[in-house]
Design brief:
Chain B: Transmembrane (T) component of an energy-coupling factor (ECF) ABC-transporter complex. Unlike classic ABC transporters this ECF transporter provides the energy necessary to transport a number of different substrates. The structure holds two protein chains of two kinds. Chain A is an alpha/beta fold. Chain A is built from eleven helices and ten strands. Chain A has two domains: 231 residues, P-loop containing nucleotide triphosphate hydrolases (Rossmann fold, 3-Layer(aba) Sandwich), CATH 3.40.50.300; 38 residues, no CATH class. Chain B has a two-stranded antiparallel ribbon with strand order 1-2. In chain B, strand 1 and strand 2 form a beta hairpin. Classes of the chains: A alpha/beta, B mainly alpha.
Chain lengths: 282, 265
């Protein structure tokens, strides 16, 4: 139990005035320090899960559903303790920028926690520098790109030192370059701060970075495993309407032509290498 | 378009920019009160010199201040002319029907003109050298005593600062919606007043829906970052008095002495 940071046990949640629950009897656990991708198409309930983790939404029946974050069971009186442990980077870079400038925004979470100002100044400067935005500390959000705003959102989370960082479609509104930079940054700060990362996404290239993939469809967890295993289930991916990463698609098409590529090949470079070796053997 | 400047702040580096926004706001109010203490030409001379000194101290071009006065110039001239032609006293130079041109009238017209122009000039000094956010902070400080009457000043200031922060965002959104409507044949520039007003409706509806969405997203983000209401929060951005703030203080003291002495002449 100790190495599991998040635990869902038979969690059911319905939005008001809807007939079927958005999340049905969901049970899973996430290991401390891991990177988990939660995938599924729009409306599969994956974003609802992120809001359940930090108590922005509460399960229908707290008696039957149990959510535990870092040993704390979610209940009305523990919700603020849990929010201390979980930071979420949301989808829209603009709609989560609260402060008037970069520094002000990073300080927002600290202000809420009543951190004394002298400490706050140090923490903010450090967090802004950590995400490579030191040159923009005084900048106003309207002068920043989407990717830069997401960096600031990450800095705001690092400043309050949570245990878990959730990326809720955080890269879906960014251009490919901005997306790559954010993912690189997340990978770096995850190691430096010993974070557990949960990325909620329908972009399987992003999911490929994870240690573990959870597949959701219609509020139910339909599969889980390491990315390589999950992406190999091409029919499943197509059934729930997700685009398989290029390497896996190519491997599948090649096997249709009778060319087998080893299971261990997961990146474009490895695929090129493997194809070249194949060429040598012919 | 996204780099829209709210208010009329112009970047600069003279000491006026370094004066604490609270000092600037208070001095501006105080100056306006002092204007009404002037009753004779010595008083008006003194206050005009002080007003122009503030303008010169900003180090900005005269055009900036002219732009401030320009929209009001007809109103100022109209009021000044009313004073000139309707007020009798002293030597009468000309009289026709209800109009009188007298020495008192001319002097009063000039006084009214100066009063109006000075009020606009000093407010312009304040608005062009102070960022809207600083003005909001200064207002919060001035409103602080209202806490005694259970007014939630912290929340008001958060509301103002978020509103200021989202002006450019909503402006961008407006431009986007306008372009989307234009590309489908909407015309915002032609036709009479009613037609133009009507063409704004299909723009306002999506903008309104959009801003509700922004508000919902923002409240979710704020809550997940631990916002529990404005009680028990600390402040990152604070205003600190510095030596520069002695300048407006002495400015006010000397101005008061001058205005009081000229009244006694």
């Amino acid at each position: 139990m100790s190495d599991k940071i998040i635990n869902f046990d038979h969690v059911t949640f319905s939005y008001p005035d809807t007939e079927s629950p958005a999340v049905k009897d969901l049970s899973f656990s996430i290991e401390k320090g891991s990177w988990t991708a939660l995938i599924g198409h729009n409306g599969s309930g994956k974003s609802t899960v992120s809001k359940l983790i930090n108590g922005l939404l509460a399960p229908d029946d707290l008696e039957k559903s149990t959510i535990t974050v870092d040993g704390v069971k979610l209940a009305a009186d523990t919700v603020w303790d849990i929010r201390e442990k979980v930071g979420i980077v949301f989808q829209n870079p603009d709609n989560q920028f609260v402060g008037a400038t970069v520094s002000d925004d990073v300080a927002f979470g600290l202000e809420n926690r009543a951190v004394p100002r002298e400490e706050m100044v140090k923490i903010v400067a450090q967090a802004v520098a950590d995400v490579g935005m030191a040159d923009y500390a005084g900048a106003e959000p309207s002068s920043l790109s989407g990717g830069q705003k997401q960096r600031v959102a990450i800095a705001g989370i690092l400043a309050v030192k949570p245990k878990v960082m959730i990326l809720d479609e955080s890269t879906s509104m960014l251009d490919p370059e901005g997306k790559q930079q954010i993912l690189d940054l997340v990978r770096r700060v995850k190691e430096e701060n010993d974070l557990t990362v949960i990325s909620i996404t329908h972009d399987l290239d992003e999911a490929a970075l994870a240690d573990q993939v959870l597949v959701m469809d219609d509020g139910v967890l339909i599969d889980q495993g390491i990315p390589r295993e999950i992406f190999a289930k091409v029919d499943l991916m197509e059934k729930i309407g997700l685009d398989i990463p290029f390497v896996y698609r190519l491997k599948q098409l090649l096997s249709g032509k009778g060319i087998q590529i080893p299971e261990t090949v997961t990146s474009e470079e490895e695929l090129v290498k493997s194809l070249c070796q194949l060429n040598l053997k012919m | 378009m996204s780099k829209i400047i709210i208010g009329r702040y112009l970047p600069g580096s003279t000491f006026v920019y370094r004066v604490d926004p609270r000092a600037k706001l208070l001095t501006t109010f105080y100056f306006i009160i002092m204007i009404f203490l002037a009753t004779n030409w010595q008083g008006y001379l003194a206050i005009t010199i002080f007003g122009l000194a503030a303008v010169v101290a900003t180090g900005l071009k005269a055009k900036v201040f002219w732009d401030g006065v320009k929209p009001m110039i007809w109103l100022i001239l109209f009021t000044a002319l009313m004073q000139t032609f309707f007020m009798a006293g002293g030597t009468t130079y000309w009289h026709w029907w209800i109009f009188t041109l007298s020495s008192e009238g001319i002097i009063n017209g000039i006084y009214v003109f100066l009063r109006f122009s000075l009020i606009i000039l000093v407010s312009t000094v304040m608005t062009v050298t102070t960022k809207p956010l600083e003005i909001a902070d200064a207002m919060e400080w001035i409103l602080k005593p209202l806490k005694l009457f259970k007014v939630n000043v912290g929340m008001i200031s958060l509301v103002i600062s978020i509103a200021l922060r989202f002006v450019p965002t909503l402006f961008d959104q407006t431009v986007k919606i306008m372009n989307a409507q234009r590309s489908r044949g909407a015309d915002f520039n032609d036709g009479g007043l009613i037609k133009r007003a009507k063409s704004v409706v299909p723009m306002l509806v999506p903008l309104f829906i959009d801003s509700l969405e922004v508000a919902l997203d923002l409240s979710t983000a704020m809550e997940s970052r631990g916002y529990k209401g404005s009680e028990g929060r600390t402040r990152y951005r604070i205003l600190t008095w510095s030596k520069v703030d002695l300048v407006p203080l002495f400015y006010c003291i000397i101005l008061t002495i001058l205005m009081v002495t000229t009244r006694m002449l």
